[in-house]
Amino acid sequence: VSAADWPSHDNPEWQRVLDKARGLGWPAPAWSKSHPSINLKCPTGACAFLIFKTGGKNTDRVAIQTYRKLDRCTHGDLTSSVAKVDVALNTADRLVSGAEVLISRGEAQARVEAALADIDEAVGEAAEALEAEFDQAGAALTDLDDRASELLGSDHQQREPATVAAEADPHLRAAKIDLAVLPKRADVVIDRQTRLAELRVRRDAISSHRA
Ligand SMILES: [Zn+2]
User: Fold this and answer.
1) Which residues have a beta carbon within 5 Å of ligand 1, which is an ion?
2) Distance CA 204, CA 211 (A)
3) Rounded distance from Cα 70 to ligand 1 centre (Å)
4) Distance 32 CA to ligand 1 centre (A)
5) Among candidates 51, 22, 17, which has minimal Cα distance to 37?
6) Which DSSP symbol is given to 3?
7) d(CA 67, ligand 1 centre) in Å
8) CA atoms of 94 and 92, how far apart (whole Å)
9) 31 CA distance to ligand 1 centroid (A)?
10) Contacts of 165 (CB under 8 A, 6+ apart)
């Protein structure tokens, strides 16, 4: 039912009555601008009200009473009113559902971000420990490179420990032979015997070591 087919009333209370009747599915009353009254009827005609376009001093009160009486009519066709309500409810449902999804989405996004932050933190902690180990190992390597260069020359990285140790053997033997003819109780000789013994222990340890 189009509102354009319906009369309008200068009095707001009577306008409410007309709007309500329209909402109840009552047919638009026959009316003309020149006619002083509107004959408002429900679809069966069982409920009928005569509305004057210009009312007396009690017209508000009469309009309010009429408005209440409209509620007693059970003859109207509510289809279009209910359909209108359905449209509003469907729209509201869509928006509420959308809001709920947005909340869930926000929660899911927060979970993703928290997981990413946890990963970053865990990676950061692990990387920190590994970097410390890397730094320490790197510093040790640099020191040992320097020391190896001092002892063996700059090509030391191509040498095998067992081979290098084996090269010491003739020198250890020579020292032993030379010491054998020196006075055993002389302090300077005892020092060298001790040193020879210590070197042989260290050299034997290298034989069992696989680089
Ligand atoms: Zn009725």
Assistant:
1) 42, 46-47, 73, 75
2) 14
3) 8
4) 23
5) 51
6) G
7) 13
8) 5
9) 19
10) 203, 206, 207
Interval between CA 141 and ligand 1 midpoint (Å): 102
Distance 13 CA to ligand 1 centre (A): 20
Residue with tokens 């020196």: 182
Residue labelled with tokens 């990387």: 127
Q: Please name the residues in contact with 209: beta carbons below 8 A apart, sequence gap of 6 or more.
A: 161, 162
CA distance 174 to 170: 6
Coil, strand, or helix at residue 74?
coil
> Are 70 and 24 spatial neighbours (Cβ–Cβ below 8 Å)?
yes
Can you read off the two tokens belonging to residue 33? 């601008």
Distance between Cα 62 and ligand 1 center (Å): 18
CA of 26 from ligand 1 middle (Å) equals 8
CA of 136 to the centre of ligand 1 (A): 96
Instruction: Say what the pTM is.
Output: 0.43
Tokens 């260069």 — which residue? Answer: 149
Residue 168 CA to ligand 1 center (angstroms) comes to 124
Tens digit of each residue's pLDDT, the chain (211 residues): 566 789 989 999 999 999 999 988 899 998 877 888 999 999 999 999 999 988 778 999 999 999 999 988 888 877 777 777 787 788 888 888 888 998 998 999 999 999 999 999 999 999 999 999 999 999 999 999 998 998 898 888 888 888 899 899 999 988 999 888 888 888 888 999 999 999 999 999 987 765 4
Q: How far apart are CA 108 and CA 183, in angstroms?
A: 88
